[in-house]
Write a structure and sequence with these properties.
Mean pLDDT of chain B: 92
Low-confidence stretches of chain A: none
Number of helices of chain B: 0
Order of helices and strands of chain B: EEEEEEEEEEE
Number of helices of chain A: 0
Strand content of chain B: over 45%
Structural class of chain A: mainly beta
Oligomer: heterodimer
Mean pLDDT of chain A: 94
Largest interface: A-B, 22 and 24 residues
Low-confidence stretches of chain B: none
Number of strands of chain B: 11
Structural class of chain B: mainly beta
Helix content of chain A: under 10%
Chain lengths: 115, 114
Amino acid sequence: AQKITQTQPGMFVQEKEAVTLDCTYDTSDPSYGLFWYKQPSSGEMIFLIYQGSYDQQNATEGRYSLNFQKARKSANLVISASQLGDSAMYFCAMREYQAGTALIFGKGTTLSVSS
Amino acid sequence: DSGVTQTPKHLITATGQRVTLRCSPRSGDLSVYWYQQSLDQGLQFLIQYYNGEERAKGNILERFSAQQFPDLHSELNLSSLELGDSALYFCASSPATTGLDGYTFGSGTRLTVV
């Protein structure tokens, strides 16, 4: 079974609009972390935001926020005021702490921002 | 610069050959992880080392091996290369094996097998 599911292969948004990238996860581990990474066309993996399973509030980092719905096992990334430089592949990932697993990635969503 | 250094950045080699990819983790990080990113398989976890010892194995082929040295740098050895091994290989590091820490990734080594 897929541990991390990203159902949107591609998303298109105009500059200055907000966009939500979907991510659902599957785990029975009570202690886990959820991560989002950005991979521009140059290839590097850039860490964006982190949410712990015990965190009461949704994580925010500048224009990035994570809409964490624990009961639904979803961890959607919200990018506000999109910029052309946001065009990239975005990966949702999870780490299970009790199980001690390494970071597991979804298949990714390609975001294209147009002017 | 993420602090994780991977060399070489690009590598082109023939089928059947053997190559070594090198990774220096971020200063102070004890864990090193290797990932393979290909178009059809996405980002696949290969193997993890912590302070010189193997800690976890993922989808790593028997033709592949890795080690972490006393200075904490790591090498991924790929042998009997096949066309399907062409991929972007990432190294990542983190301070510890567990805990609420994320990974810092290197810029990757793009391997092309011809």
